[in-house]
Write a structure and sequence with these properties.
By secondary structure, the protein is of the alpha/beta class. It is 43% helix and 10% strand. The strands form two sheets. The chain has a seven-stranded parallel β-sheet. The termini are far apart.
């Protein structure tokens, strides 16, 4: 079986062992009332609330942002974090020179780690494992920060591994000193996740977003972190069930961790069922994602209309909002008492006097 406790020595891998512990949320963009710019105070609100949750870091999402807006968001998040919580950012999709420049920007801004991916352009798809590795290698070598890989279901990559996870490529990348972890996306199967653990767990932290996998994996492989998803679905500042559960698994306190797993399982199961179908279509239930954060203290605010082709995202209506609140209450988690209008415009904007009538539209909200 894979190594349950140790990570091969390097400064970056040791950093991950010490700091990627517990849970890590997505830091969604917070938009101005006209959806044309960032609401910087809203971004700061969500960083501060993530600190209150006890999360180990936040991961900056570029959804609906230009490259310059994403950079500004990273700067604001890092400024607010300032040693109190880590900040991760995504580097993907540009030619090598552009990716390297983005890495340098993120390090200067204060990011603590990077998630590095490759272009999704069909013209640039690697055709062999060696091409895959050589596409990653110069990016990893240029990165001055720890790197987290991303394992997701990619049908056109199935020749490289189960679910399209390029297992041999990840196995080779795991030997690099600054490659420290793998986020395993929600739809990835248990079989593919087990294979990742078996091949890399002594060198990388394996972070499944499907928490149902964790009790099984923890019997054989070291588990301590799950991140880059809406972890607020199983956590609140007052009841940090998810954070404490992952810490207990990491400490080898299995029975204590399972007591918390029993509490959060209905919450996690409901969130999984809500989201997994969307992720398979490279989509998300945007309104729900933001509402999960707001009801346990986040800034809230709507995602701008993304105008995706065939965007069939279920709107967040009264029934869905009540369902989310009831899920939290069933686990003894209190939800905010602020008016729903605060969610629509966002906490920062609401405090400035903005109201729903001031918005030109209410995307993904009903």
């Amino acid at each position: 079986m894979g190594n349950k406790t140790s990570i091969k020595t390097s400064e970056q891998k040791q950093w991950a062992r010490e700091h990627l512990v517990g849970l890590e949320p997505l830091l969604w963009p917070i938009f101005s009332p006209d959806f044309k710019s960032l609401d910087e105070e809203g971004v700061r609100n969500d960083v501060r609330n993530s600190i209150r949750h006890g999360f180990c870091s936040v991961f900056c999402m570029s959804l609906g942002l230009t490259n310059e807006e994403y950079r500004k968001m990273i700067q604001v998040a890092c400024d607010e974090a300032k040693g109190k919580i880590g900040v991760g950012a995504s580097v993907a999709g540009q030619p090598l020179e552009g990716d390297i420049e983005m890495m340098e920007f993120c390090k200067k801004a204060g990011c603590t780690y990077l998630s590095i991916g490759l272009s999704r352009n069909p013209k640039h798809r690697p055709q062999t494992e060696e091409e895959f590795y050589q596409a990653y290698l110069p990016r990893m070598e240029a990165a001055k920060l720890p790197v987290v890989l991303y394992a997701s279901v990619v049908p056109h990559q199935r020749k490289f591994g189960i679910d399209g996870v390029p297992i041999n490529v990840f196995d080779r990348l795991a030997d690099l000193p600054n490659v420290v972890a793998v986020k395993v996306s929600q739809p990835v199967s248990m079989t593919a996740t087990l294979q990742l653990c078996e091949r890399t767990c002594g060198r990388l932290i394996i972070g499944p977003t499907n928490l149902d996998f964790v009790p099984i994996l923890a019997k054989h492989y070291h588990q301590q972190w799950s991140g880059q998803w809406n972890v607020e679905a199983v956590n609140s500042p007052g009841k940090p069930y998810g954070v404490e559960m992952m810490k207990l698994f990491g400490q080898g306190k299995y029975d204590e961790a399972m007591k918390l797993f029993d509490i959060i399982e209905p919450l996690h199961s409901a969130f999984f069922q809500l989201q997994v179908g969307y992720i398979r279509q490279t989509n998300h239930p945007w309104g729900h994602n933001k509402y999960y954060q707001w009801v346990v203290g986040g800034n809230g605010g709507l995602i701008k209309n993304l105008h995706y082709k065939n965007d069939l995202v279920q709107p967040l209506d009264d029934k869905e909002r009540e369902k989310i609140r009831n899920l939290y209450h069933s686990a003894g988690i209190e939800t905010v008492t602020a008016p729903e209008e605060e969610f629509i415009v966002g906490k920062a904007a609401y405090a400035r006097g903005v109201r729903a009538k001031d918005l030109p539209e209410t995307p993904y909200y009903k």
